[in-house]
Structures
1.
Amino acid sequence: MDNWKSLYIYFISGTGNARISSEWIAEEARKRGLKTVVQQIDRLENIVMPSADEKPLIGFAFPTHGFNAAPIMLRFVASFPPGLCKEVFLLNTRAGMKLYKLFMPGLSGVALLLPAFILRLKKYKCIGFRSVDLPSNWIPLHPGLRIKVIESIFIRCEKIVRNFANKILSGEKVYSGLFSLPVDLIISPVAFGYYVAGRYFLSKTFVANYKCNNCGLCIKECPTSSIKLVGGRPYWKLSCESCMRCLNHCPKRAIEAAHGMAVVFWIIFTTVNTQIILLLINVLNIQPKVWWWRITADILSIGGMILIVTLLYRIMHYIIGLKPVNYLVRFTSLTALPFWRRYTYLKNNKKYICYNKEVTTF
Ligand SMILES: Cc1cc2nc3c(=O)[nH]c(=O)nc-3n(C[C@H](O)[C@H](O)[C@H](O)COP(=O)(O)O)c2cc1C
């Protein structure tokens, strides 16, 4: 253990879980008289780095996306300057759930391993790995959790995170995030698939419904500047990381994950893709089972998926201006169902939203 004089935490957070975790750790550090700097890395802008004479301990907190660290955090870690300190720690927030009285954990995959590996190459020593199962924010997959469930998950996780902070700050090494290593390694191919292909498909499932009043909040809040106005309506670029901030923050509940539209896109993509691959096999007289063709076909399919889905999304963006199309997209989106709650931990004031009308202070 070095004699740390300061704590720098860099975090990215879609809906506030990694943010509150960073704040809990910083509070514990302040109790020990350390100077603390908690930095959001949105858009990788205005980031303050510590100087060596501040003797910093550096931490990274981020959500898990597709069994990996959020891509913006991976980019940040990859460009992180070497030699700022000796020791660092990592904390990933995951999809916490509760089934009756049982707290259910999320899955990390390579979310801790990959940034730790990159930091190791830069000669940083990782003294803490922790996963924390705060309320899941993956709203396209399930409605936001109920207030009572959120509350109990928060109470449990606050203790876990503060405990983690205190152990690290007293020089103990914490590797509990590595307990699930065998499972994490088994699912790592999915992490790869999500990183190279899945996330681009997800970013093309967001639409603004007719309730959108162009307030611009989603554009302002987006941590990767991935939303722009096209024809007076929000349009999600491929750089969107599906962090869920826009969908969960929208005061009008005007942002949907368009399930029906995504299914139609998928059917069109697979049909077109199969025809193109078959055509290539016939025209070029390829043996479909040879290894190099299998790899080439996979690469072509990923490229084709991104291209075709982006094109379809662009077309849809214009025709969704027509009320019947807008209604059809909305009413085939599960997120439009009245009980499909949103989830956000609000900044600055200790409040969280479970459903637009329910706001609780804790
Ligand atoms: C696109 C996406 C992918 C996700 N993938 C995973 C995952 O692989 N494993 C997991 O445990 N949680 C996953 N989650 C859930 C979030 O990691 C989890 O809710 C996290 O606590 C959110 O933190 P934040 O509020 O700081 O963004 C995913 C969420 C989203 C939106």
Note: The first strand starts at residue 6 and ends at 11.
2.
Amino acid sequence: MRWGFDNMRLANQANISITTNRSCTLRCEHCYIEPHLFASKEQITVDNYKLSFDRVDNLYRLDQGLEEVEWEVIGGETTMMPFEFWQQMLPWTMDRIDRFNKEHNLWIDGNLNFLTNLIWSDKRYLGLIQEHAKHPLFTLYTSFEPDTNRFGKNNKLLNTWADRLSSIDANNKAVDLILTKGLIDFGAQRVVDLLLPLGVDDFSIKMLSPFGSGKVFFDNNMTPFKRMEDFVIEIATLLPSGITFTPGVEIEHAFINGKSVQCNGNFRYDLSIEPNGDTHFNANQTGDESVGLNLGININSANWATEVMFGNRAELRTKLTKQHSCCDDCKYLPRCNGGWHHYKSIDVSHLMQDGGCPGLKGVWDYLADKSNGKSNHSTFPEWRNPNGGVYE
Ligand code: SF4
Ligand code: SF4
């Protein structure tokens, strides 16, 4: 691992993670949330929720390097909020994001990723989600892993999860697949066979976070990057046309439009807005592990955007400069940024055997080959910016 500075490296997107509550109906073993937070009864207020969008609007106007904004509402479990909260806030949110996209004339429209584990006790949520699921800016986002206790003892909740997922008719239905040992052992073909009939149209493949209650799980369930790579490529080959996968979509955007890949945590901002309005800089780190919580930035501050822009600098610098030694000569570095951001501060060298890396270089090679229609990696396209310029 070394530190360096490379002007060509890019991070231009914000992930705005609005945490409505930290309580959850499940106790997944890989969860990045610090366990004591599940006991918190705190819930975001309507005022703070709405204010979050206005503050991000200010940030977008202030930071000229910020080009895209993606919104997610997250818990804990979001449906542990009072039903009336989402009944009021879901339509409001769709209108607010639509207005945000139009006012800023975004190159790629921001979406609302509504995260839910689908294990709710208030049955009215099914109808409420369905009411909004056809909105073009709404993405239903849930998760699947076979080995994290997500579905309880003997996977007894799996059928409930699958039935609810299947019954929602959504424009965008994404499932997070965390690359645990168990998921890879489960097999790409079985994953595809399970999820496609449920109407899933985006396979969002990500890596384990070494934080919160997931730390122990991480130590025992990480798998070499080369194995992850092979799994992702197999998924890619199995998906029918029109069904997308992460990081595939972002890598293709990097090839075609010069966009940076963000799904590996290398967002310009990865902001977590807590239920009480406190704001910190890595949505995968909570409680005592939070980055920048000590700065005391709260959504109620009129200077929130300025405080966020300056407070985030150290985190952004890490994203744009830190890399693994295997990245030194990698042609994908300007847009990959050295792979999964959360592995830049821990030693993952033991997972890099056989040429694997935390940016899944083999997946980039696979898609570069595909986009060129050739098997020669040297034909990889030059980096181009959206205005037609060439980065290198
Ligand atoms: S991973 Fe999600 S569903 Fe599982 S315990 Fe954590 S917050 Fe709850
Ligand atoms: S693909 Fe791998 S080697 Fe290349 S920059 Fe990303 S992490 Fe580094």
Note: The chain has two domains: 11-313, 316-379.
3.
Amino acid sequence: MSLEFYKLLHLTGVFMLIFSLGGVIVHAINGGTKQSNKFRKGIMATHGIGLLLILFGGFGLLARLGLVSEFPMWSVAKILIWLTLGGVIGVIYRKPASARSLWFFLIMLAVLAAFLGIYKPV
Ligand code: HEM
């Protein structure tokens, strides 16, 4: 599969992930709980499939760029960001008071992931 295809897959995953996190955050800010979320299954599926597409697309990109054996530091940092964005959905439900700050923090984290992928600093 081509670099372009993996990139499209990667970005599709990013959109799904960010969309689902945004939905859960707004729900939590409005006083909603996991149980009261009427789109709970849909959000969890979007979040999970998004994460898988990011991972699959990301490693496909690394392979196409010939960087799998090198595995640069920025790609390790991206995996840590990926893990954080995967785990944080539970935190939002458990600590709704953190939802507002997470809204801004997660945007910054996603921008950092994009920066690392685009500039490949180290
Ligand atoms: C498993 C973790 C990840 C890996 C291995 C990975 C890998 C990559 C690679 C290799 C590129 C460079 C593509 C190129 O130069 O053609 C890239 C670009 C990018 N990544 Fe990731 N990534 C990961 C996670 C993430 C996450 C969590 C986000 C955002 C939430 C993200 C957003 C982006 C964006 C926006 C680009 C720019 C796409 C472009 O070049 O047009 N990545 N990623």
Note: The longest helix spans residues 3-29.
